[in-house]
Amino acid sequence: MAQCEHPAVTTFREYIRIKTVQPDPDYETCTKFLKRQGEELGAKVHVMECVPGKPIIIMTVEGRDPTLPSILLNSHTDVVPVFPEHWKYDPFSGHKDEDGEIYGRGTQDMKSVGIQYLEALKQLRAEGNTFLRTIHVSFVPDEEIGGTGGMMSFVETDYFREMNVGFGLDEGYASTSEDFLVFYGQRHSYHLNVRCSGQPGHGSQFLSNTAGEKLHKVINSFFSFRDQEERRLRENPDLQLGDVTTVNLTMLQGGVQFNVVPAQLSVGFDIRIPPALDPADFENMVQGWCREAGEDVVYEICLKFVTRELSSVVDGQSPWWDAFSQACKIEKITVQKQIFPAGTDSSFIRQVRR
């Protein structure tokens, strides 16, 4: 099987074997691999660090008119932690089974995309094509932990500004149908911690005004809203996950021992809200739930990422979208336009666009 394997597949499997897994990604080996790929492409390769130890690799194929706004093809190099005992094969082996299925952490998110960029450019250049605009292919670190050491810092540099990016592509989801998914924005992200304080005492008593009672009310309010949003998604076939708010309880803290009613309990939620819901309205709703739960119930926003910028995906409104849309039509590709339900580095690029 290896003898007839396409070189692109071999390259992809080599990339999978590099353990760029958080919290201790092997960026050094990854950088060496990507520099070699850039040299094979015939691109100018630049490596920089906005944060020490977190390399950003930019491959540049200069266009016939480098004064025009450029095209950016972005992907991230890091992958999320993995539990090998739950895998059929070693998640960093790049194993390919008899059906050609490739197993590995990062196969979807998003090492496959980075290799697709490179292989497409290699093929186009091998066919003798040149490009009107300059094309940059960027490989950035730390997207899986918020992007602060990667794209968030990179977009603030003079180097990025001098790239003069006019249009960019980043990650999405693999489609389960014959349609292709085009994401033109993403949901706002919140990490909320709600702290409930109340009457402490012995576990043998019926105490009033306890932290537990208040916590119960808070959780009920959040989950009632969660059920409402889940029902909206289920009952409306026109809605996608990115169009509704998801609420998930991810942390619980409190208590000292089994027979003591604690003076304080807290609960943490991961919440993603669509662009259609104003963040101020959402926060007012949370404040209302806390008031309804009783006195001494307060919430803290541990993380808030709001991105109000949306890319234009309407024909005739953006020359970039028109070019992309026309190419899809020529290839008879049907696209579905959606809001990305999670977070990507695209949000940082959208926020600095001029």
UniProtKB/TrEMBL annotation:
Keyword Phosphoprotein set for record: no
Cofactor mode of binding and number, as noted: Binds 2 Zn(2+) ions per subunit.
Molecular-function GO terms, alphabetical: aminoacylase activity; metal ion binding
GO biological process, one term: amino acid metabolic process
Protein name in the entry: N-acyl-aliphatic-L-amino acid amidohydrolase
Cofactor(s) needed: Zn(2+)
Residue span(s) of domain Peptidase M20 dimerisation: 185-295
Gene Ontology cellular-component terms listed: cytoplasm
Taxonomy, superkingdom: Eukaryota
Principal location class: cytoplasm
Binding site for Zn(2+) 1: H76, D109, E171
UniProt record similarity statement: Belongs to the peptidase M20A family.
InterPro entries found in the cross-reference section: Aminoacylase-1_M20A, ArgE/DapE_CS, Bact_exopeptidase_dim_dom, N-acyl_aa_amidohydrolase, Peptidase_M20, Peptidase_M20_dimer
Entry EC no(s): 3.5.1.14
Active site: D78, E143 (proton acceptor)
Zinc as UniProt keyword: yes
Binding site for Zn(2+) 2: D109, E144
Subcellular location(s) per record: Cytoplasm
Protein keywords: Cytoplasm, Hydrolase, Metal-binding, Zinc
